[in-house]
Amino acid sequence: MVNAFENADGDLANRMLAALEAAQKAGGDLRGKQSAAILIISGEPTGVFWKDVVMDLHIEDHPEPIKELRRLVRIHRAYDHANKGDSYMEEGKTEQALEEYDKAATYYPENPELPFWVVVTLVGASRVDEALPIFKDVFHRDPNLKTLVPRLIKSKLFPDDKEILKHVPEQ
Fold it and tell me: CB under 8 Å to 151, separation ≥6 — which residues?
């Protein structure tokens, strides 16, 4: 475990996963595969638990807990990037937001909601031509997402523009 941890590439979560995988490969728990967890706390605690916890993932009673934990770490990273994108949008930093949303979609490509927010960002930045092919793909992959558009219009997060809306499939 120590060797795997010390020689693994990447951040602390990657190194911890490598150590868990090495332990499993060496024989693991004598009771068999059951659970796995990662808890990472900030090195600079604020005293506010939800701010200090960097990652807290648990897999219980699963046939492949470490594999599932690795999947959830990947998804956690995707949402971290999506959250950073949201923060950039609040600051009016569209390019940085798009970069973060793209990273999020790269970590979790099977989730069409992440590129949906890329579309919303592009449309908000008057880059409709870039958004259109993504629109089509997102709505093909998850038709339910088109129900968000009218809600986003009401929230002023999406323009109420007939030219743009003609590309949004009927609700």
Answer: none
Helix/strand/coil (H/E/C) assignment for every residue in 68-125:
HHHHHHHHHHHHHHHHHHHHHHHCCCHHHHHHHHHHHHHHCCCCCHHHHHHHHHHHHC
Distance CA 94, CA 86 (A): 10
How far apart CA 126 and CA 116 sit, in angstroms, is 15
Helix (H, G, I), strand (E, B) or coil at 55: strand
Can you state the angle between helices 12-25 and 65-90, rounded to 10 degrees? 170
Closest of 81, 59, 60 to residue 70, by C-alpha: 59
Token pair for residue 44? 């600079």
Radius of gyration of the chain (CA): 20
**CA–CA separation, 163 and 53 (whole Å):** 44
Identify residue 133 by its one-letter amino acid code.
P
In whole angstroms, give the CA distance from residue 26 to residue 8. Answer: 17
Nearest to 24, CA basis, from 67, 75, 56, 74: 67
Q: pLDDT (tens digit, 9 = 90+) per residue, 10-31?
A: 999 999 999 999 999 998 877 8
Question: Please, which residues bridge with residue 56 across strands?
Answer: 39
Mean pLDDT over 114-141 rounds to 88
